[in-house]
């Protein structure tokens, strides 16, 4: 079974989650950061997994543009969707639902919020200001769920 994981990341959490997901998958798995590299043709892949992080309520523009361009093909594939987000429930579930086109969201075999990781020292000045004033966050923190990532990997591969 061949799997393609296409993701976009701002500070690295989604990249880390995608790498963990890859390690839990069986068969050939290719990781592609769509913001930095071109994705291969979808035809040779059984599973297509799309993931991004929520930043100002949206996933990365590069991932959104890719999905828009490939939507007809994606709707004929086995698809999984994930986001990395730090909001509490039920906000994070709404963020997941709003991150992807409704048609793709409804088509996806599995969808999940993997959690978050904030590396405070990596944030730019503006993002540190936002985190400090709105979220009262002044240091790094993480809650990336290994359990959710493992369950996602199992589910996407079910016949």
Q: What does it look like?
A:
By secondary structure, the chain is α/β, with parallel strands linked by helices. It has one domain (2-156): Rossmann fold (3-Layer(aba) Sandwich). The protein contains six helices and seven strands. It has helices at 13-24, 61-74, 91-99, 102-107, 125-134, 146-156; strands spanning 2-7, 28-33, 47-53, 78-84, 110-113, 115-118, 141-144. The strands form two sheets. It has a five-stranded parallel sheet, sandwiched between helices. Helix 1 crosses helix 6 (146-156). The radius of gyration is 15 Å and the shape is globular. The mean pLDDT is 89.
Features:
159 residues, Rossmann fold, 5-stranded parallel sheet, two-stranded antiparallel sheet, 6 helices
From the structure provided, what is the oligomeric state, counting identical versus distinct chains? single chain
Quantity of strands, as a count: 7
The helix/strand series, from N terminus to C terminus, equals EHEEHEHHEEHEH
Which fold does the CATH topology refer to? Rossmann fold
Major sheet description: 5 strands, parallel
Distance between the termini: 11 Å
Structural class: alpha/beta
State the helix count: 6
CATH H-level superfamily title? Flavodoxin domain
Question: Rounded to an integer, what's the Rg over CA atoms?
Answer: 15 Å
Spatial order of strands in the largest sheet: 2-1-3-4-5
CATH A-level architecture? 3-Layer(aba) Sandwich
Mean pLDDT: 89
CATH class: Alpha Beta
